[in-house]
Amino acid sequence: MLEVDALSVRNGAFRLGEVSLKVETGACHAVLGPSGAGKTTLLHAILGVTPTESGRILLDGVEVTRLPIERRGVGYVPQQIGLFPHLTVHGNIAYSARARRVPVERFQPLLDRLVERTGIGPLLKRYPATLSGGERQRVALVRALASQPRLVLMDEPFGSLNESLRRELWWLVRELQAEYRLTVLLVSHDLTEAYTLADHVTILAEGRVLDQGETAEVFTRPAGAETARFLGIENVHLGHVLEVSEGLATVRVGDARLVALAPEHAQGEVLVSIRG
């Protein structure tokens, strides 16, 4: 389990302010937001490459906020894949486990299973320069998982791939996550990707949390107008609940009255959007 508690990070003139989130063991949590929102800054702080100002980072209940990167037990799939060009595919995927001094008898059986599941067996003797984009992504996934990390951080890993290949890798990640109970924190700008992969989402803007919760709930019931617009809902209007009866609310919007599905506790001012 990952717990981020009131984390603040300064990166030059940018400040990420008091972000909290939790990722249960075996779950996937997506961090969304426009460019410059602080998504990668948050990921780098959890990884350990960007120092924090305040707050705590806990993995499985143990605080790792001040630990060096190599002692956090975190796997990482960055935007720019970063495979070592002088190593073969096999050398790349075994590197993280060997660097952390994981005994070969511990990581080799898992490595063999991951190679089989991802279909990269024929690539093991090749070098990164000879691989396609999709092949490099598969190799990067295996490398991140080979050392049996407590947490996998993924920073927009599929953004440079075409649509069909992205979707193919989404399903591969889901299958691997279910099979190995991976705990994943995913940074993405792709709403469909987040909806497909994530159990929960956090939406950032200008270094602050706009909205947070179960993916379906946030996507269908955004907490505010800024979140709604980020999710592509443009026609957001201020309304006032007049009454709620049997799951339906009567809402006044300007001079009009609308009837919409609503929880029994809905009252006062609300945001209203009509979707096609």
Detail the topology: elements first, then pairings:
Layout: E1 2-11, E2 14-23, E3 28-32, H1 39-47, E4 54-59, E5 62-63, E6 74-77, H2 89-99, H3 104-118, H4 133-145, E7 151-155, H5 163-180, E8 184-187, H6 191-197, E9 200-205, E10 208-214, H7 215-220, H8 225-230, E11 236-245, E12 248-253, E13 256-261, E14 269-273
Parallel strand pairs: 3-8, 3-9, 6-7, 7-8
Antiparallel strand pairs: 1-2, 1-4, 4-5, 9-10, 11-12, 11-14, 12-13
Helix pairs in contact: 2-3, 2-4, 3-4, 4-5
What structural keywords apply?
single chain; 276 residues; alpha/beta; Rossmann fold; 2 domains; six-stranded mixed β-sheet; 8 helices; 31% strand; elongated
Question: How would you characterize this protein structure?
Answer:
Helix 2 (89-99) runs antiparallel to helix 3, helix 2 (89-99) packs parallel to helix 4 (133-145) and helix 3 (104-118) packs antiparallel against helix 4 (133-145). The protein has two domains: 2-220, P-loop containing nucleotide triphosphate hydrolases (Rossmann fold); 234-274. It has a six-stranded mixed sheet, sandwiched between helices. The chain has a four-stranded antiparallel sheet with strand order 2-1-4-5, with helices on one face. 31% of the residues lie in helices and 31% in strands. With 276 residues, the chain is α/β, with parallel strands linked by helices. The mean pLDDT is 89. A hairpin with a 2-residue loop joins strand 1 (2-11) and strand 2.
